[in-house]
Design brief:
Largest sheet: none
Order of helices and strands: HHHHHHH
Helix content: 55-70%
Radius of gyration: 27 Å
Structural class: mainly alpha
Strand content: under 5%
Distance between the termini: 74 Å
Length: 131
């Protein structure tokens, strides 16, 4: 009888372990808007985007620019959802050096800069950007 009870207890323990191991735990990471903004800030600080600013200035004066390739390289190193924020931030840094008309023209050039680099987003809506 003792052997039967031991065998039953062992079988119950094995069934419990088998049943417990059949379940898996899934963890979901939720990235909040605040965390995404912080990540963008870090990326913006890491990338100068100077070649992008030079490219847009040269485009405003209808000069050919070798800076597009360098600009694209820097933007490629940023998350897609950070590229427009980065361009907007860098333009705001230079806004004191530009007239209102120059700033408007530069923003028009920057709006489609990611698509010129064959990357997303297709266009930047600078009126909706928050840093």
């Amino acid at each position: 009888m003792a052997k039967l009870a031991s065998a039953a207890a062992l079988l119950a323990a094995l069934l419990f372990i088998a049943h417990a191991s059949a379940f898996t735990t899934t963890f979901t990471t939720v990235i909040t808007d605040d965390e995404r903004r912080e990540s963008c800030r870090e990326q913006i600080m890491r990338q100068s985007l100077g070649p992008c600013m030079r490219y847009m200035r040269e485009q405003m004066s209808d000069r050919r620019s070798p800076n597009l390739e360098q600009c694209c390289e820097q933007m490629r190193d940023m998350d897609e959802n950070c590229r427009c924020r980065g361009l907007h931030h860098k333009m705001m840094e230079q806004s004191e050096q530009l007239s209102g008309e120059e700033m408007r023209r530069m923003m028009e050039k920057a709006e489609h800069l990611p698509s010129k680099c064959n990357m997303g987003p297709q266009s930047c809506d600078f009126g909706r950007i928050t840093l």
